[in-house]
Amino acid sequence: MAPDLTPYLTVTEGELRAALDRDEPALLPFYAMLRYPLGFADEQFQPVQADSGKRLRPVFCLLVSELLCGDYARALPGAAAVELLHNFSLVHDDIEDGDEMRRHRATLWTLAGVPHAINAGDALFALAERELLRLPERGVAAERVLRAIEIFQDTCVQLVEGQYLDMQGEQIRAPSLAWYKQMIAGKTAALLSAATGIGAAVATDDAHMVTRCREFGIELGLAYQMTDDILGLWGDPSVTGKAAGADLRRKKKSLPVVLALERDGPLSSTIQQAFDQGTVREEDVLAIMRLMDEANVRTAVEQEVGKHRHRASRALKRIIREGAVSTKAGVLLEALTATLTQREK
Amino acid sequence: MAPDLTPYLTVTEGELRAALDRDEPALLPFYAMLRYPLGFADEQFQPVQADSGKRLRPVFCLLVSELLCGDYARALPGAAAVELLHNFSLVHDDIEDGDEMRRHRATLWTLAGVPHAINAGDALFALAERELLRLPERGVAAERVLRAIEIFQDTCVQLVEGQYLDMQGEQIRAPSLAWYKQMIAGKTAALLSAATGIGAAVATDDAHMVTRCREFGIELGLAYQMTDDILGLWGDPSVTGKAAGADLRRKKKSLPVVLALERDGPLSSTIQQAFDQGTVREEDVLAIMRLMDEANVRTAVEQEVGKHRHRASRALKRIIREGAVSTKAGVLLEALTATLTQREK
What we know:
The structure is a homodimer. By secondary structure, chain A is an all-alpha fold.
């Protein structure tokens, strides 16, 4: 059973809404546009409570802070900053990848046009950064605020580097596992690592503990993205909202594809030929899925996931052993870590 | 005669090049792309020293710091941050406006494609922010660093708000002078205000002085943008690189157009009709220029410039009177302020 995160989600929503609140008349339509990716506005940019995503990153930020100092509220600006940054990257990624749908909703650029969507993404980026400057209002000392900002800045650079590698990946015929990990380290793991790192930075002066929490976030993020890659090929369409083999149609260099391309024989050549077409044909998707089954690719992927899940869970155990002041936060973190990396297939 | 700024420009170039230095092999082409807008790479993204712009904003940042504490070197990361932020906004603006040329060079998106150019802009944004975290290495105390970051964050938000207003301006038939000032306050003045404000924030704990320096930057920025708007219509093509009346062809809601639209009679109706066409016709450009001459629009624009130039110069005089420790920096700031707001027509 998934742990109950209601209190954390409630305060996060409040902080996020406040960050996007601006009453300058000429700018009201602009801020309405910014609320859309967060789920606070509908496709006409009118107020609504849509499915707002899982808010995973803020929850991890709050829980790590509570774990280490008994208080989650002081990390709230950090939690909101990471979620805004995540949404910035989704808005720009969707333009860059030409994706028209996300979480069953039209992407921002399809509604507002590319120029406004670029600028709206920039705004979410700018507002994310500015959120961190609300940490002093929560009683966080200047040195700790600077450490949180430093983690955040590193993350921003990792994000754009990861996105560059992802876009370049389309040109790489046989991407290596090392390339794949470098790419998702930037694109996914960096954000989770920012969440856990900032949660720790506001809670403690112990630099080693902050580093350990960042490492926990990285391993968690790697396992999470790899699990997502499994769902992108073998996920239940009624749960994921995508047809089976969806990532193949997008020619995505996801972990199953990367590992499959390392094999000799018909599997890699079939993928190469299918990806060389303008549009991947349905019969090729089926053929690749069948060849992957025969080659036990999924087992190899699950071994990789297992490796990082194990590292994440070991890192968390050590953090709890050495620094926990809240048993409750520790229990929730362990449950959430398990849920995330073993999602329903 | 323009003041000699060589020492300030030299250190700025060094700091900027260091900010864009990254030796990770997979990312070399990415960082090469980032160097292009700064003038450190040619159209094939190979190293070169092209015309790198005037670096106005960094120079103001360094001079204000020197003025108030006798040392410009400590403001260097701030100066580089503001220049990187400026370049981020140019890269994204060029995509949003569909501009293919800037300063006689192809814009980044025409060379790298829109997806990579969006991401490269994001990278310049991220690296700009990160530069500020190098201030402690220069001996700037944590509280002052936080104040510099705060100014920077405010600026980022103002930039995206200004860009939104600018893009919306295409839909406004009769923009007011208030709308125009709000828009350029965000798009141009905010960056100069960040430069002077951060220069002050690293040099002094006196919050009033920092505010005063930000105000100086705003007035300077308003006068500067308005002067640029004059050049956009009446500038010497051999100096500006654009044909006379260039801003009319782009349907830009620049100050002359905004003031002209406030007049009754044939001037405003001719502009409205010309802008309603898909492409502005050459005979309309000539007709509008002639009607503007008859209506003395240029005089009205120059009165506005004069007002803000006067305010900038008065603000600077007060700053010098109350806080200057370096006579040399004061003299340079006054000369530069005069040059910028009275550029060759």
